[in-house]
Amino acid sequence: MPQIALHTVLDHGREADYEAVHETIPADVAAALADNGVRDWRIWRDGRHLFHLIDVADYHAMRDALRDHPANVRWQATVAPLHAKADDYSGEDDGIPLVWSLAEQRDRETESGVNPCP
């Protein structure tokens, strides 16, 4: 399943609030994500910087479906004020570009007949 990495930034002083609302997200939001191809969504925080890794069948289709989904609209009303810049779901972003992958390198080496690292 494709993975998309994202980087977002919290507004000053909102770190604890963000972590609190993410202890358990609402069941209808989790269901909407799953119904739209999200297998997993992990978030790491470094200060105000958030790094998301999303396992999703089709990132753009998921965003299109969630843009006006009632559960997501309510969820965005909760989390948007915590961010330095709210996500309006208008862009065609593709996330953070991948620089390197060990698995992809090993696959290329195997396909080309090069002995991959043991």
TrEMBL record:
Gene Ontology molecular function: any one: racemase and epimerase activity, acting on carbohydrates and derivatives
InterPro entries, per the entry: Dimeric_a/b-barrel (IPR011008), Rham/fucose_mutarotase (IPR008000)
Name of this chain's protein: L-rhamnose mutarotase
Lineage: Bacteria, Bacillati, Actinomycetota, Actinomycetes, Pseudonocardiales
